[in-house]
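Risk mitigation, structural track. In case the binding assays with protoporphyrin IX containing FE fail to produce interpretable data, a predicted complex structure has been prepared as a fallback.
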Amino acid sequence: MKYALSFLAVIALVLIAWLGSQIPGMPYIFGVAFPYLAIAVFLGGFVYRVVQWAKSPVPFSIQTTCGQAKSLDFIKHNKLEAPHTTAQVVARMALEILTFRSLFRNTHAEMHQGPKITYESSKWLWIFALIFHYSFLLIILRHMRLFLNPVPFWVQWLETLDALFQVGAPTWYMSDVGILIGVGFLFARRLTNVKVRYISLLNDYFPLVLIFTIAITGILMRYFLRTDIDIVNIKQLTVGLAALHPTIGSDIGAIFFIHLFLVCALLVYFPYSKLMHMGGVFMSPTRNMKNNSREVRHLNPWNPRILPHSYAGYEDEFREFMVDAGIPVEKELPPQKDEE
Amino acid sequence: MYNKRTVIPGLAIFVLFVTLPLWYNGLSAGPIPKPELPPNGTKECVAPASEMRDNHMVLLNEWRDSVLRESGRSSVSVGGKEYPKALQLACMECHSNKEKFCDDCHTYASVKPYCWDCHLTPVEAASKKETH
Ligand code: HEM
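Fallback model:
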């Protein structure tokens, strides 16, 4: 049901863009107004979310570790699993972001007769998540050819690398196949793994369907529905967007507006969804803190400021009252001077 | 806000990356390619110009497959003249200035067809003729 709903939502978006862009004048709304709006919401929302996170205090020292912390010299310290210096934290964070080490540890739990539960290493999630994320990154970097003029040399390198198999014309990209397989697996996993399916929400299915449809429309546009897809003409619009005076030359096929509108929807959705894990991974205290709680005391930032108050100071403050009440004091009151 | 000294530079780098096209292009869209018309004075292409702009690579691919895999070495007639279904013997016959025609668009759109690894550009073909 939840996944069917996400398909419906994406189909509705496709129809809006398809029919909408056919109305005269509307290409400017879909090709200029929405992209600017979307990028503004994306950037603003992203920064807002990160600032909100940065404002939240971290009361405890809560790194996740799965190795020996730094201790006595003869006990071998596991530098990556229990990072002790900033450099080690950066190294662990970089490996997490570039190679998804935590997903590499993914296990698959199963109930057997007995009842007995078994945990088995399961690398599928890791490998398909890697394929998906790297394909996505490669596609976005390659898309820079539409926005940068002159096109920098590294874009050309990525294109050559991605099209290494030189199949067909326009040449097939590995990342196009990669992103479809990747999203396909991540979606199928949510449907077929009962435990994951039980906890999956509309907000888990929707981004997958949306990204899948973006990739499909892009692939359709490049290889199959090329009518009115003149990249030179499209680039005049996209570079124009970046130069802040966009123009739409001759007609552009509806498939382009569908692709673009779905991307706008993704950009607007991004800051308010789980996709914020892109910024969140850097902000998560379980990964960005040092495991040095044995040397450095972690202070809870919302602790009230309480100054030390010694007994001598306490007596100084209340001596008169204590004497009045007949409580013994260590230091007597100064002798009273007669007022006469 | 905590950890200002890492969060703010981090955010700044992120915003710089996202806005790369804005400052990389310096707010200028740059020159638009103007492919040169065939120097031999022909007025028509193998298909209407707008269709060629969208689909010429698909057409070339179809031609290549039909010639090499199905031995369909037929010819097309453009404006009364017959041209073999070929890259060098048709397209480059009319669009003989590759650098000012094909490359003009391709540099703009960052496409670098690998066809010229094997096929000769008109300039290369001319220099080959001289040496033999
Ligand atoms: C989330 C961001 C995006 C994703 C995942 C995405 C995905 C894709 C994919 C998979 C393709 C197939 C060909 C290729 O891999 O290059 C494609 C093509 C294309 N995309 Fe995107 N796209 C995105 C954003 C955009 C944006 C913002 C624009 C323009 C404003 C755009 C315009 C195009 C065009 C014009 C093509 C056809 C390229 C060609 O014919 O060579 N895309 N897209």
